Amino acid sequence: xxxxxxxxSLVVAQDKxxxxxxxxxxxxxxxxxxxLFENPSETVPRDSEEAAEVVAAxxxxxxxxxxxxxxxxxxxxxxxxxxCLFKSRAVNTDRIKQESIGTFVSNYEMFDTYEDLARxxxxxxxxxxxxxxxxxxAREGEEDPGQFLNTSANFRxxxxxxxxxxAGNVFREKQKRFRNMYLPDPLAMNVKYHYTMEKLWSYQWxxxxxxxxxxxxxxxxxxxxxxxxxxxxxxxxxxxxxEDGCVCIWSIKNPVNPERKFNFDAPVSAVxxxxxxxxMLAVGLYNGTMEIRDFxxxxxxxxxxxxxxxxxxxESIWQIxxxxxxxxxxxxxxxxxxxxxxxxxxxxxxxxxxxxxIQLLRLSRVEGVVEGLPIAKKKDLMEAYRHPQALCLxxxxxxxxxxxxxxxxxxxxxxxxNYPHHHIGVSQVHKGSVYSIEYSPWSPRIFLxxxxxxxxxxxxxxxxxxxxxxSSGFNAVNCAFWSPIHATIIASCSRDCVELWDIRxxxxxxxxxxKFDTAPLTKIKFSKCGRSLIVGTSDGTxxxxxxxxxxxxxxxxxxxxxxxxxxxxxxxxxxxxxSLGHLGYxxxxxxxxxxxxxxxx
Length: 601
Hints:
Layout: H1 2-18, H2 51-65, H3 107-120, E1 121-125, E2 131-135, H4 145-149, H5 153-178, E3 196-203, E4 212-218, E5 225-231, E6 245-251, E7 260-264, E8 268-273, E9 280-285, E10 290-294, E11 301-305, E12 317-323, E13 334-339, E14 343-348, E15 356-362, E16 371-372, E17 390-395, E18 402-407, E19 411-416, E20 425-428, E21 434-439, E22 446-451, E23 456-460, E24 463-470, E25 479-482, E26 489-493, E27 497-502, E28 512-515, E29 521-526, E30 532-537, E31 542-548, H6 557-568, H7 571-579, H8 588-591
């Protein structure tokens, strides 16, 4: 009986196993492609573009293996190559797990979430067309990460490096152009001289809105670093004037944000990097104070400053120049400054935190007739103030003890450090204020001046008559500079445009005029290489422009300058200039070719 039961149960179990299932579940997953076999084609169609290269390679192979080329001389040499190890991204990443989870969100929570996004989202202008949207999230009960991140020096340094890397993705090609990696081809057949300016980028920051660009200074050892002073330039009663100022250190590696910013209680009127210690930056303020900052420090550590109680200067410092040092702290150099009240000050470093200031000279208004431009002086209320405004300063390129000061009455005062308390000479160079004095890089006796009488004048030392006069409109010329790589090119800036002059070609009108659809312009300056120009505006924007379609620099720079001056003058003035002899640097006499036209006696 037991056996029968066991056999019956066995039969029933076998029947259940033999019955096929009615439903089969299949789960498909995507996997990585596995290449089992690949046989790339080694032939190309004869009518394709690669056919000519393949035929030439085959013929060369036949020539080197079976033809006459196999009898060539060969030598054995050792070579060392590097092993390049490759690793795919899939090695360092885990498979992403996805799960479906249900949740419940009320209307109140959705409203609070969108309110927080609107409050914490900001946009950052990368270019004129591109913006980056940044959103920060915060929860109740958690610490604000900005409280300890803003105080971390390592975090700010890391953020600055990340900003440089991100900016490189956008401005890489323009940064290469600024670095002169794309030089014009001197053998090109379609060379044209249009004197164009191509905008590369703009140094612009939201926090600087309302501040005018008052001064520039390039770092002496790093041509990528630019110090910009922000303060007060145009006195416009319709706009609110700033009561404070700042200095920003910009780098071409990060055109979006400044890498240093130093705030001051008064508008900044002048900045100047030290040629002796590149990390020191001299800053002149609108209230007559001057400070020396270490810009390598994140907060701009104060090296030295003037003392208001002991320094006689209390008016705006309009320009700063560095001089070789004397005495105990000679390695730091000295500073020469001019002020609106006509004071010329010299500052020296001391063992304390203050600069030792000495008043060299206080200019007085010119009386009578002086050499230079013949103008009729008019009596007005301004002459009741016996001291003119000192607006520009320039040290002689060869005689470091001689310097020149331009004033608001159009006079150029020649002064000397060896003879303080009085000037050596004075001449009338403009009918209005003198805003700039610049010596030619190729001649220590040829210089230009520009002013409020709409003119740029080129002068030769020893001749009290301008050899060249440039004028194109009825706007005051804020500043003018010689090109550091081309002897006959001059760049000038007025309130509404930037003009490029080439006195070798024409002097009646500029070679090109460039207008900016922004606020009024304030200052310009050439880059160290001379192939770019920076333009400042009254709304705190600094445009970096590349000079394209420019003439190639001549081999003999002084000869081109001399030829241009001789071609622009005639008569007695030409004889006066020729009688002065060679006007270039002493070492240029040996380089000057004998066949140059217009050679001096």
